[in-house]
C-alpha cells in the first residue's frame, strides 16, 4: 500500500473511528430545537448517531424549552437544557419554573441563562435579567443541574453573582473575556467553551492555550452564522470534529487524545 493511500485510510478511520473504543464527541451548546433545523432534523439526528456526537440542546424561552423537551424524546443523543435566555428575560418566570419542577428528572441542565446589556433598554430590564438569571440558578442548585451561561459583556457581573452559587458544573459558553477574566473563570472552577471561531481567530486560540485542560469544552452555538472559512454558514453539529482538530493542534495533542479529554470534561460538566 502506498503511503498516500495508508494515510488516507488512517484519516477515514479517524473520522469514522472504525474498530476502536468509541469516544463520544460533545457539542456543549447548540440550539437544535431552533425552528431553522426543523426541516432537516431527522437527517441531523442520523448524522449525530453516525459521527457519535451528543448535544447539549439549550433553549431560549418557555416555548422553545417545550420544543427542546419534544426533541429530546426523539433521540437520547439530545441532552435537553431548558431556561430563559437574557434576550427573553422579560417573559414571565412562572411558566418556566413550573416546567423545570415538572421535568427535573428528564432535563440534563438549565440554559441558556445569563446576562447581556445588549438587550437592556432601561433599569427594569436590567432588574428582570438579574432576577430571571438568579431564579434559574437557584433551580439548578436545587436539582443539582449543570448550567449553560451566556456572559456577553457581563462576565464581571456574572463572576460576582456566581460567588453565591456552585460553579462546579457551570459553563461560560463562547468564552470571550480577557486573559485576566479567563484566569478568574479558571480559579472559580468554570468550564469555558470554544466554537468554530477558534479555527480562524488568533485571540481565541491564545485564550484556549491558556485554559486549564480540564475546563475546556467545545460547541457550535448553531444556528449562529460563522464568517471567514465558514462563508456565513449556520453552525452545524458536523463542525465539531473540525473544532476538536483545531484545538488538538493548538494544544499539541493528537486528535484522539483531544477527543478523549473533551469527552471526559463533558461528562464532568454534565455530572454523569
Ligand atoms: Zn446560545
Q: Give, in order, the helices and strands.
A: HEHEHEHEHEHEHEHEEEHH
Q: What can be said about the biggest beta sheet?
A: 8 strands, parallel
Count of distinct strands? 10
Under CATH, the topology can be stated as TIM Barrel
CATH architecture level-2 label: Alpha-Beta Barrel
CATH superfamily: Metal-dependent hydrolases
> CATH class, anyone?
Alpha Beta
The N- and C-terminal alpha carbons lie at a distance of 43 Å
* Distinct ligands, ions and cofactors found in the model: zinc ion
Radius of gyration: 18 Å
Number of domains: 1
The low-confidence runs, each spanning 5 or more residues with pLDDT under 50, are none
Structural class: alpha/beta
Overall pLDDT, averaged?
A: 93
State the helicity in percent bands: 40-55%
State which percent range the strand residues make up. Answer: 5-15%
**How many helical elements?**
10
Q: How are the strands of the largest sheet arranged?
A: 1-2-3-4-5-6-7-8
